[in-house]
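Forum: Protein Structure Q&A
Topic: Joint prediction for protein chains with partners

I've read a bunch of threads here and the consensus seems to be that you should model interacting components together rather than docking separate models afterwards. I'd like to see that in practice. Below is the full input, 321 residues plus whatever partners are listed. Could one of the regulars post the assembled result?
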Amino acid sequence: MEKYYKIADLTVSMDTFGRTAKQAEPYLLQQHNSADIKIKSNWKQWKNTHPYLSDEDCEYLMTGSSFYAQLLDYNGLMLHSSAVVVDGKAYLFSANCGTGKSTHTKLWLKQFGEKAYILNDDKPALRLVNGTWYAYGTPWSGKYDISVNIGVPIAGIAMLERSEKNEITPWGGREAIFRIYCQTNRSKDEKLGIKILEQLDKLMVDVPIWKLRCNMEPEAAIVAYEAMSGEKWRK
Amino acid sequence: MKLKPGFILRTVAGQVVVLPSGEELNLNMMITLNETGKFLWERLENGAETEELVSAMLAEYDVDEATARAGVERFVAKLNENGFLA
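Posted by a regular:
Agreed with the consensus. Here's the joint model:
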């Protein structure tokens, strides 16, 4: 059955099952008019090319990819990242799978205790609303479904690399563009690519980008927090 | 002359970038261009040959033919070496 959801402050319609339906439950709308984003999933087609995936995983990937592609038409884009919130600001940590995004934001939870929570652990939606970039929780939030259904202003985005020592520097220019481009929607469709770059242009002008080289010690979270928030860390 | 399909030329955060579209992204196929590079790339998108590129350079910039030709040849050779030409 087709249901309506509020995701990233957009009305979304989809008829889904399994893990997607479960993870989307907190986003359900009781009343609705018309949908901004209509998700039509053809997971069976995806299954043909990815036979090693389960039906519900195909559906999850397919609906997510459809949502994030259409998000580009609403001043938004997806960033493959773990987003942690402290004092009402979102801090995003992006990197290739297996680099330790979630491990890093877990260090924040440890350091900040109840002051901090994870907004989305895998694919937050980023949107420019009334001149401010927000990060939103979504149903497409990774295998552990750690996500909250709200939007939080973005304090900064750090591209994360593993290193023995902890250091963070402001980043921009070509290398930063290339790295961020690698962590958003992927598509063979050039039109989608152009839309991604339009959003990226706005995002990189407004939101501070950092290069974080860090280990997995608690100090990594403090180093990142102090630079990105401009505040001294205190318990 | 033809560029390989699937590349996007765009200005992002003040940089002129050429990025691949597709599911497999290779950092080696991501480049930035200067003003002349952008000028030539846009003409290559329309399948321009060396002579057309040289003429376009002469019409647009204050350069002599030998310099324009050398510049065009250098640019095209570099694109070719790095796998951007079809």
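Helices of chain A lie at 18-24, 43-49, 55-71, 101-112, 173-181, 190-206, 218-229.
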